[in-house]
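Predict structure. Input: glutamate receptor, 560 residues.
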Amino acid sequence: MSLDLINTQQVEAIVGPQTWEEVSLVADICTDKQIPILSLADTTPEWTAEKWPFLLGASHDNSAQMKAIAGIVQSWNWHQVTVIHEDVGSWTNGFMPHLHDSLREVGAEISQFVGLSPFASSDSLSRELENLEKEQCRVFVVHLSLPLAVRLFEMAKKLKMMEKDYVWITTHHITSLVHSINASTISSMQGVVGVKSYLSETGQRFQDFSSRFRKRFRRENSEEENNEPGIYAVQAYDAIWTIARAFKGSKRRNQELLERVLQTDFDQGLSGKVQFNNHKVAPTQIFQIINVVGKSYRELGFWSSELGFSETIGKNATHSSLMNDLEQVLWPGGPKYTPRGWTEVTKSKPLLVGVPAKSGYEEYVKVEYNQSRNSTSFDGLAIQLFEETVRSLPFYLPYKFVAFNEISYDDLVGQIGENFDAVVGDVAIVADRYKHAEFSHPFTETGLMLIVPARSSNKAWSFIKPFTEPMWASITVITIYNGFVVWLIERPAHPELRGSMLHQIGVMLWLSFNTLFSFTRRKTAQQFVKDVSGGVVVCGASCHTDIYSQPHQHADCPEA
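Output follows.
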C-alpha cells in the first residue's frame, strides 16, 4: 500500500504506522525512495537511524514510565512483581530492560514474566491466570495492547483476581486509552492503578483541536459514547504539523525535507515539545497516575523524571519520591489499606536449609534428635538469627531445616544447589567454598582480638586489689608464726620474754610485728625471720605488678 501511495499518489511523506512490525515493512521502501516516514510506534530502536535514515520516530519515547512504575512499587514497599506482557518482539525489547533496571534501583525484582499471544484464547488466558493465582506474588504489571488487556481483566474478574490483596498496575498503552473503554469493561478493572502520558489540556491550541476533533469524531462515529481525543490522536496531529512546517518555504523534497523535519524545534506541540534527537522525538518526562474507580477513573497525581510524585503540576507543587502523599488509592475489592503484595502459598516448595549436626559450639548451632517423637530440634545463635531474618522479610518464605550428619564442612557447602538451597551454621569463609556458595556478612569484624577484664571505675583504690581476704588471712598467720618462732628461739637468752602467760602472749605479738620493721642484725635467727617476711612482701609486690601489667578495658568503652 505504501508503494502504491508513493508511485500512484506521489506522496512526499508518510505518517502513521503504529506498530513496529508495520514500520519495519514500510521503512525499506521509504528509504529506497527517499521519502520521510514519521512513525507513531512507541518503540524505535537506536540502530534504525543508520539502517533507515528516512525513518523518524514521531511518538514520544515512554521508557521513563518504567521509573514511574518502579516509584509506585517502592511507595508501598513491595519487593516482587509479576510482569504480564504481549509476546511480540517490539513490545518486549524496549520495555523489559528499562523496567528491570528501574525496579532494581528501588530494591525490587521481577519474579516472573508471563508472555501472552495477541491471539490468546480464553482458555489460554484462564490457564495463565490460574497459574499466577498459585504463586506468591500479588503485584502484577500489565503491558499489553488494549484489546488483549480488556480480555485479560474480564477473565481475572471471573476468576476473582480483581478482589482484595491483588495489585494491578498498567502501562500507558492501556491507561492512556481508559477513557475510550465502555462501562461493562471498566467494571472489570476496578482498583487498577495506571500510568498515562500527560497532556496539558488548558492551552487554547488544545481546546481548539479538541473541539474540532469531537465534532468530526461524533459525525463519523455516532455510535461511540466517548469522543475525547487521546494521546495517539494528539501525537498524529503533532506529526502532521511537523511535516507542514517542514514543507513551508521548502522548494526541494526528499533529503532537504528530511533535514528540515530533523531541525524541527517548537514548544507548541499538543503532546509536548517537538524536537528530534537521533531521529526520535524527545522522550516524555511527565506522567499522570490514575486509579480506575466507578465508571471512569480518578486522577491521583503526577510523576516527573526529575522531581518524582506531586499532586499538581507547576512551580508551587510539592514533590515527593513516594506517592503516599497523593490521594487515597482504592485498591481492587475496595479496601483502603495497602495490600501487602504477596500471600502465603502452602503448596510452595520450602527452602531446604542444611545445618551441621556435629557442630563444635552448641551455643552457636545445636541439633538434637528426639527418638520418642521422631523429630529433630534446631537451636543456637545462628539458627535464631536466621529465623529472625526470615520473619523480617516483606514476603513469605517457607523453609525447612535439614540436619547434615557428616563431619566435613566442605561437603556440606558442596551440597548447596544439589541437596540444599542454603546452609546455616558455624561455617568458616574459605576461598575454595566460594565455588559452591556465597556467604553472608560475618557477625563480627575480621582480625585478631583479645578478651580482657573490665577495669574498675574506682582507680584511687585499685592498689589494694591484690589484697584479697585470703591474702590478708595469710599475712596475719605468717606474721604471728614469725613472732612465735622468734619468741621461741630468743626466750632462753632473754629473761624479759618469760613471765605470766598473758605477758608472754603480748611479747610474742609484739615480736610478730617488730620483726617486719626492725633492722637490727644482732641475731641470726631474727635475720632469718626477716628474710622470710621479706619474701612474703616480695610475693605480694609481684602479684601487684602482675595485675597492673595486664591489658584492661573500660567497661563503659564502646569497644567493650
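The first helix runs from residue 2 to 7.
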